[in-house]
Structures are given as structure tokens and as C-alpha cells.
């Protein structure tokens, strides 16, 4: 499929002849609207004429293309961009090509020779690009091509001024690539070799004639296209050949020892090793560049051997990954506010598939309904600003490539039903950073408040591809783990179709990622078409549970956890399989058409229906002990710090029913302000008690003495048995039903 630039607006500087003219003609031929800029000066920067730009514009228009001329100097960058905005309403691609020569041997280079070259090449490219930058940021798209030279990369006699400016452009491009990445602005640099007014002064005539500009233009078009994801690259190009350049560095050698001065003689004696490119490293960013220095400081201070390879040592320590958990964990992101009314609640409900075709849905779609409510999973919307607004980019110790960030898991817990209007404030904290080898996992905890009242808590688990290997831990007690479903047939299955416009509708709730709406952007991500938001599937599955097991009563909803596995295409059908065990409903979501699992390890926790008693809960197949642990959890939130001081221990509970383990709980009253965990626990437990659901309730209600239960075999204890004496503090004082 050919590359098209229909709808794109391209500015080419110095487009009156040579390479610039070829670029302008090529972009226009493929549908771009082109601004042909040329001051009309001679090769040394003297004179001015509109003839060159006008001629190229005429060529483009004669072929049916769209183009306008601009005759300003690149030092008037704002004027060039304004021409694009006035003529075509936007700017998408900037090709900084304009240049002049004032070749002199270094000793004969005047101030004017130096200054003119810097002003046109380096300062001109800076001014034009700066003028376009905010327009590209706002539209979340931009492609910038800088023009360097072999003279800048390697040096060339008589071109000290030109070489300095051209290598300066590479430094500028590298930084723009970093700053523009999160806005989908990519910046690359080319070092072209082609026949032009500038190269005819340093090349033989027959070589100038053979190195045609048309052999360079295709690379510029590719780097300017939306499908191209290259960013921060440097390319030599000419004669139909293209090569990418990167830095290479020797392994190096440490030439100092602790408490000893560093001497030039030591450098002389180890010069061959310092300059030995055997097993050279290839640093790709400033973090990797600095890793050797950090490693050297560590080795010298610990009196490591002189001559140890610092690059290898740093790599093994993960110092080049750009992630430092010691700096990142505990960092708070700037608070975000979210103001909303019934409109946003209804829009979200429509976005996750609710419809007036189902009468039960009306309470979520009509603000005049007597029971008008907000869907519980709307709780992710106020908190997602912490992820969407680039807050992670400001966190020390998290120098990551945001194009490699994937949403891995999500946990949401509500402390009260969500209001249908108001102003909510979310406070986000980096809870932990994990090293998974192939990538890093960042756990982001977000608490959302209405005034001073905590409304809901979210934990975003994001995976950063390629950011692992920094030597961090692989798991965390702070993570809300996914839980596999029971190994039996599901208790209920709901199949629900998404619409072709499901992603287009859901994005109106605040996730504006073009991956879900723009086919060309989706193609850059490797998808055939825009994909559905993971949190949209999350909303579908949650409302399936709410209807099937909670009579669409949002006050019954407590929490949801999911792991995102595969994408869903708008128009596909979601099949939610559900297993009810007590107050927890395990869920697994598939695409019906392909049988591919899209949500795994998922569950929804429900509050028991008002008026339900332990007896009828038990008759329904649940565990009476669920109520006690739920109350313990609520008490820990209120007075956890006090309990930690009194108890200082971690208790494990294994609850059995009909002789089989039915539930596992861990009460951590040893760290922080205390916590309650259901399911497998990765930390150390001081004492574990196994008891049946019925006997547990007898103990809690004072009908069965714990010591008698122990000696009769009804209560089994593993670990520090003496800690069981502290159970009274937990059960009697804080678990009143």
C-alpha cells in the first residue's frame, strides 16, 4: 500500500532548488499541501528573490498539487508557520533543509563567516521548529526532519563553521525526540549526500551529476509519514543507499583507586585498554551514558579492583534502565480534580454498552429516574487523569519510554456509592516498582475524595516494555493480585455485543488515545483497526456481574480486579463467564467470535444484600465468616495504626467448609497502618489458624472458647502459637456484627 500524505501539511525550507525542491515535489505528488520556502539567496547567503520558490510552486500546481510560496528567512520562523496556517489551517511536517556555505580554513574564518552559518542552519531550524511545536503538541502529531552533514559527523577541512552547526542540529534533534515523544512528535536527522548548489563546491562535477536528489527524497517522505515510528535516528543517505548511525564506546578502564590521586601516567600506561573497541558498548541515551560513571563511583568506594569493566558492571546492576525504585516509590503526583454532572454518568453508561432496550438500564441512563445512579466502574474515570496527563513523566527515578507503556491490570474499590454530580479530587502515589526482566511494572495507587471523604481507590498496574533489568524485586505485597477462577463450569454466562462505534463513544469519557479512533495510528501500533479501550471491556464485565448477582444495585458493588490480556475490536461480542463463591464473583471475559480471553484473573466483590443474615447467607452457599472479615477490614481502615501498636503480628486464617478449604485471609497488623488480604499472601505470616466456617462464627460470637476449640482439634494453629492470645483484641473489640 503506497504512502499517502492526503490531509497533511508540509513545510520544506530551502525548497527553491536541489534537495528541497525534490522534497517539495515528492510530498505534493502524494497529496500533501506544501509550503515552498526559499529566500532566493545565493549559496553564501547574499541577495533575495522570489523566483526560485515561485517556480517550484508552479511545477506542483501544474501537476494538480497544492502549494504556496514563502519568501521569508528561516530566522523569521513564525512567519513560515503562519503561512501554513493561513493557507491550509495546520502544520504536520517540517523539513529543515535551508542552508548556505561560507567555507574557509579555520584560521581565515571571520566572525561573519561563523555567525551567518550558525544563524541559518542551527538558529533557523530552531526558530522554525519552535514556531510549529505547540501546534503539533495540540494536535498530537508532528514529524520533524533535521538536515545534518557528513562534515558535522566526521569533520571536513575548511568547514569548521558548517561542521559545528550541522552537529549542533543533531543534538537539537535528539532532545526534541525525547521531549516530543509523548505528544507523537518524532524528530529524526539525515546527513544526505546529493548534487546541489552546496555540494558542487566540494565534489567533482560528474559525481555531483550522479548523486541525484531523487535518491534522498524517499527517506525524507518515510520519516515524515504517520506510519513511521522512528524517533531520534541519524541516517546517512545517498545514491540509493541508506544507513543508520549510532554511537559506539569502548568498555573503558578505571584508572584510580580509593584515597589515591589520579595521575596522567596511569592513563598513559592503560591507553591501549581505554581505546580498545573489542566488545564495545552502544549507549543509546544519557542514562546509559552515565551508567559507567555511577558504577565507577560504587566500585572505587568499595575498593573494587582497578580495571574492572564499568559498563558491564553497571549493566549487571541495572543502572542503565532509567528506573530507580528508591527514588520513585512513595512519590506523590500532582493532585487532579474532576467536575461532573449527570451527563458524564450517562455518557459513561452508554460507553460501556448500556441501552434503553433493556428496562433495567434506565436507572443509569435517565436523570429523572427515581433510582438514578452512577455505574460503579465510573470510579476509574476521575482517577485516570493521573495516567493521561503525563504525571508519571515528572516522577524522579522513572525515566521511561512512554510509547512502551501498557495498561496491565486494574483494581477499583468503592467506599460508598458514587455521586451523580460534584467535584472529586484524586491523589496518586507510586506504590511500588517491580522488575519483571523483560519490562518494569509500576503500581500507581490513586485515592479519590469528595471533599475530605474517601470515595474510591484505584490501583493502576502498568507494564513498561523493555524497562526491566534494573535489579529490583519481582513481586510486591502492595499489589492487588489477580485470582484464577474455580475449575468448574461457570455459574452464569452473559454475551453482549459491542457496536462498531463503541470505542468512539467510550473515548468521550476522557481517554483520548488515538489508538482507539484513528486507523493510521492503530496501524502504527500493529493493529488492523482501532481497538476497544481495555477499561471499556472492564465496564462491560462489571455491569454483567451487577445485573446477574446484585439486581443492578450499585450499593452492592464493593470492588473489581482485572488483568488485561488481549484487545477487543469494536463490533465483536464479549462473553463474560461468572463463578459465584460467597460475596466474590470470579469472572473471565472472552471474545465470542474468536474465543480469545481478554480479561483474566478477574473478580468482583459484592456487599451482601441489606437484610441478609449469616443464616440465609450460608444457605445461599456463602461463608458466614465473610461478614466478620469484611467488618475487620473496615475497622482496620479506621483504627489500623492503633491495632498495629497493640498487636504487631501477621495472622493467617484458613476457613474450611465441609472439610475443604473455602477461603484464605491474612490480617497484617505489623506494617504501616495495617491491612486485610483475601486469597494467597506472598509475605511472611507469623501464625496461621485453620478452622471451619461454623466454628469460627462460634468463637467470634463467644459461644466457643478458643482454647477449648484448640484442644478439641476444631482450631488448628501453625507458627507462633503465643500470638493467638492477641486474637481477642481483633475479634471481640473490632469485629462486632
UniProtKB/TrEMBL annotation:
<dbReference type="InterPro" id="IPR029069">
    <property type="entry name" value="HotDog_dom_sf"/>
</dbReference>
<dbReference type="InterPro" id="IPR054357">
    <property type="entry name" value="MFE-2_N"/>
</dbReference>
<feature type="region of interest" description="Disordered">
    <location>
        <begin position="472"/>
        <end position="491"/>
    </location>
</feature>
<keyword id="KW-0576">Peroxisome</keyword>
<feature type="domain" description="Ketoreductase">
    <location>
        <begin position="8"/>
        <end position="182"/>
    </location>
</feature>
<protein>
    <recommendedName>
        <fullName>Peroxisomal multifunctional enzyme type 2</fullName>
    </recommendedName>
</protein>
<keyword id="KW-0413">Isomerase</keyword>
<dbReference type="GO" id="GO:0006635">
    <property type="term" value="P:fatty acid beta-oxidation"/>
</dbReference>
<dbReference type="Pfam" id="PF22622">
    <property type="entry name" value="MFE-2_hydrat-2_N"/>
</dbReference>
<dbReference type="GO" id="GO:0016491">
    <property type="term" value="F:oxidoreductase activity"/>
</dbReference>
<dbReference type="InterPro" id="IPR057326">
    <property type="entry name" value="KR_dom"/>
</dbReference>
<dbReference type="GO" id="GO:0048568">
    <property type="term" value="P:embryonic organ development"/>
</dbReference>
<dbReference type="InterPro" id="IPR003033">
    <property type="entry name" value="SCP2_sterol-bd_dom"/>
</dbReference>
<dbReference type="GO" id="GO:0005777">
    <property type="term" value="C:peroxisome"/>
</dbReference>
<dbReference type="InterPro" id="IPR002539">
    <property type="entry name" value="MaoC-like_dom"/>
</dbReference>
<dbReference type="GO" id="GO:0016853">
    <property type="term" value="F:isomerase activity"/>
</dbReference>
<dbReference type="InterPro" id="IPR036291">
    <property type="entry name" value="NAD(P)-bd_dom_sf"/>
</dbReference>
<dbReference type="InterPro" id="IPR020904">
    <property type="entry name" value="Sc_DH/Rdtase_CS"/>
</dbReference>
<dbReference type="InterPro" id="IPR002347">
    <property type="entry name" value="SDR_fam"/>
</dbReference>
<comment type="pathway">
    <text>Lipid metabolism; fatty acid beta-oxidation.</text>
</comment>
<dbReference type="GO" id="GO:0048666">
    <property type="term" value="P:neuron development"/>
</dbReference>
<dbReference type="Pfam" id="PF02036">
    <property type="entry name" value="SCP2"/>
</dbReference>
<keyword id="KW-0443">Lipid metabolism</keyword>
<keyword id="KW-0456">Lyase</keyword>
<dbReference type="GO" id="GO:0018812">
    <property type="term" value="F:3-hydroxyacyl-CoA dehydratase activity"/>
</dbReference>
<dbReference type="InterPro" id="IPR036527">
    <property type="entry name" value="SCP2_sterol-bd_dom_sf"/>
</dbReference>
<dbReference type="Pfam" id="PF01575">
    <property type="entry name" value="MaoC_dehydratas"/>
</dbReference>
<keyword id="KW-0520">NAD</keyword>
<dbReference type="Pfam" id="PF00106">
    <property type="entry name" value="adh_short"/>
</dbReference>
<keyword id="KW-0560">Oxidoreductase</keyword>
<keyword id="KW-0276">Fatty acid metabolism</keyword>
<comment type="similarity">
    <text>Belongs to the short-chain dehydrogenases/reductases (SDR) family.</text>
</comment>
<dbReference type="InterPro" id="IPR051687">
    <property type="entry name" value="Peroxisomal_Beta-Oxidation"/>
</dbReference>
Amino acid at each position: 500500500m503506497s504512502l499517502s500524505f492526503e490531509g497533511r501539511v508540509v513545510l520544506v525550507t530551502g525548497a527553491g532548488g536541489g534537495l528541497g525542491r525534490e522534497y517539495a515535489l515528492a510530498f505534493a505528488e502524494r497529496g500533501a499541501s506544501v509550503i515552498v520556502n526559499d529566500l532566493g539567496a545565493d549559496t553564501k547567503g547574499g541577495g533575495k528573490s522570489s523566483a526560485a520558490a515561485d517556480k517550484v510552486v508552479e511545477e506542483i500546481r501544474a501537476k494538480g498539487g497544492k502549494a504556496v510560496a514563502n519568501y521569508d528567512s528561516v530566522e523569521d520562523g513564525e512567519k513560515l508557520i503562519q503561512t501554513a496556517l493561513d493557507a491550509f489551517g495546520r502544520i504536520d511536517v517540517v523539513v529543515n533543509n535551508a542552508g548556505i556555505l561560507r567555507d574557509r580554513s579555520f584560521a581565515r574564518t571571520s566572525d561573519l563567516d561563523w555567525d551567518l552559518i550558525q544563524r541559518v542552519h542551527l538558529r533557523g531550524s530552531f526558530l522554525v521548529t519552535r514556531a510549529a511545536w505547540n501546534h503539533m503538541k495540540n494536535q498530537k502529531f508532528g514529524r520533524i526532519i533535521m538536515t545534518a552533514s557528513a562534515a558535522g559527523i566526521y569533520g571536513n577541512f575548511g568547514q569548521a563553521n558548517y561542521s559545528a552547526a550541522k552537529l549542533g542540529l543533531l543534538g537539537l534533534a535528539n532532545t526534541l525526540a525525547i521531549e516530543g515523544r509523548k505528544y507523537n512528535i518524532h524528530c529524526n536527522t539525515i546527513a544526505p549526500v546529493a548534487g546541489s548548489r552546496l555540494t558542487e563546491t566540494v565534489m567533482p562535477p560528474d559525481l555531483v551529476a550522479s548523486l541525484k536528489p531523487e535518491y534522498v527524497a524517499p527517506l525524507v517522505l518515510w520519516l515524515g509519514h504517520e506510519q513511521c515510528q522512528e524517533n531520534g535516528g541519524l541516517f546517512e543517505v545517498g545514491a540509493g543507499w541508506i544507513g543508520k548511525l549510532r554511537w559506539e564506546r569502548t568498555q573503558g578502564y578505571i584508572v584510580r583507586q580509593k584515597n589515591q590521586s589520579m595521575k596522567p601516567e596511569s592513563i598513559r600506561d592503560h591507553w591501549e585498554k581505554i581505546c580498545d573497541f573489542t566488545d564495545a558498548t552502544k549507549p543509546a541515551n544519557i542514562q546509559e551514558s552515565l551508567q559507567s560513571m555511577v558504577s565507577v563511583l560504587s566500585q572505587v568506594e568499595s575498593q573494587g579492583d582497578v580495571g574492572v569493566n564499568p559498563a558491564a558492571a553497571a549493566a549487571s546492576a541495572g543502572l542503565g534502565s532509567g528506573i530507580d525504585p528508591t527514588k520513585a516509590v512513595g512519590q506523590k503526583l500532582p493532585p487532579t480534580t474532576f467536575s461532573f454532572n449527570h451527563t458524564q454518568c450517562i455518557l459513561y453508561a452508554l460507553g460501556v454498552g448500556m441501552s434503553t432496550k433493556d428496562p433495567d438500564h434506565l436507572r443509569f441512563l435517565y436523570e429523572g429516574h427515581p433510582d438514578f445512579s452512577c455505574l460503579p466502574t465510573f470510579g476509574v474515570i476521575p482517577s485516570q487523569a493521573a495516567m493521561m496527563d503525563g504525571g508519571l513523566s515528572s516522577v524522579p527515578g522513572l525515566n521511561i519510554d512512554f510509547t512502551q507503556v501498557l495498561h496491565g491490570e486494574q483494581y477499583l474499590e468503592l467506599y460508598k456509592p458514587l455521586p451523580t454530580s460534584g467535584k472529586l479530587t484524586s491523589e496518586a502515589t507510586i506504590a511500588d516498582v517491580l522488575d519483571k526482566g523483560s519490562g518494569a511494572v509500576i503500581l500507581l495507587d490513586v485515592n479519590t475524595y469528595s471533599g475530605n471523604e474517601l470515595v474510591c481507590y484505584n490501583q493502576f498496574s502498568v507494564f513498561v516494555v523493555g524497562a526491566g533489568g534494573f535489579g529490583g524485586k519481582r513481586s510486591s505485597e502492595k499489589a492487588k493480585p489477580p485470582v484464577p477462577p474455580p475449575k468448574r463450569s461457570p455459574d452464569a454466562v452473559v454475551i453482549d455485543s459491542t457496536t462498531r462505534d463503541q470505542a468512539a463513544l467510550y473515548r468521550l469519557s476522557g481517554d483520548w488515545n488515538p489508538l482507539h479512533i484513528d486507523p493510521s495510528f492503530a496501524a502504527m501500533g500493529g493493529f488492523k483497526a482501532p481497538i476497544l479501550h481495555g477499561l471499556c471491556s472492564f465496564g462491560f464485565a462489571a455491569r454483567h456481574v451487577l445485573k446477574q448477582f446484585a439486581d443492578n444495585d450499585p450499593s452492592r458493588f464493593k470492588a473489581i480486579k482485572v488483568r488485561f490480556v488481549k484487545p477487543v475490536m469494536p463490533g465483536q461480542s464479549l462473553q463474560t463467564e461468572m463463578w459465584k463463591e460467597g460475596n466474590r464473583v470470579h469472572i473471565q471475559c472472552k471474545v465470542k467470535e474468536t474465543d480469545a480471553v481478554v480479561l483474566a484473573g478477574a473478580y468482583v466483590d459484592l456487599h451482601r444484600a441489606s437484610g441478609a443474615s449469616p443464616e440465609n447467607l450460608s444457605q445461599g452457599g456463602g461463608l458466614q465468616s465473610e461478614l466478620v472479615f469484611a467488618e475487620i477490614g473496615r475497622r482496620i481502615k479506621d483504627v489500623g495504626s492503633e491495632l498495629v501498636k497493640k498487636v504487631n503480628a501477621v495472622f493467617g486464617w484458613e476457613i474450611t467448609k465441609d472439610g475443604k478449604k473455602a477461603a484464605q485471609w491474612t490480617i497484617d497488623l505489623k506494617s504501616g497502618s495495617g491491612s486485610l488480604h483475601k486469597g494467597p499472601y506472598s509475605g511472611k505470616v507469623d501464625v496461621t489458624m485453620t478452622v471451619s466456617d461454623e466454628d469460627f462464627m462460634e468463637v467470634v460470637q463467644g459461644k466457643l472458647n478458643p482454647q477449648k476449640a484448640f484442644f478439641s482439634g476444631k482450631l488448628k494453629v501453625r507458627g507462633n502459637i503465643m500470638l493467638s492470645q492477641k486474637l481477642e483484641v481483633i475479634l471481640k473489640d473490632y469485629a462486632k456484627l
